[in-house]
Amino acid sequence: MLKTFARAAALTVATAAAFAAPALAQNANGTIQLRGNVALSCTIAVTDLSQSLSLKAGENAKTVGNVTETCNSGNGYKITLASTNAGKLKSGNNEVAYQVNYDNQGGGLTSQMVVDRAAAQFNKKSDLKVTVPASDQYIAGDYSDTITVTIAAK
Description:
Strand order of the largest sheet: 1-2-9-6-7
Shape: rod-shaped
Helix content: 10-25%
Largest sheet: 5 strands, antiparallel
Number of helices: 1
Radius of gyration: 37 Å
Number of strands: 10
Order of helices and strands: HEEEEEEEEEE
């Protein structure tokens, strides 16, 4: 009887080992791919401060507008300033040239001014400033021009 019990115990241990061994030796894996997307978004908010320029006395870097730029392009973006009257205030056939300054870049707007941004920026605030030379020889009239500010991803 002792022999039978020893054989049964040995068989039970061997059976348990046979079931356990394959589970330990088996190696399996799987993968999960994560995906996402951020859409390109460039926005600009332009605030016209409704300033009246003193042409006869002249103006020196008078802030006429505020601009808030946001663009998430990893390659950066461009801000373009364009004048309807090629950088001149007009009253009929009479003209007064002016200069602009935007984020430390300045000049006349006889053609478009392009401000290059090398990287994405969020809520970047800049002022648009205008300089008009003083003169006693400007012709009477109401002078105006329109500056358009545009943002575009690179």
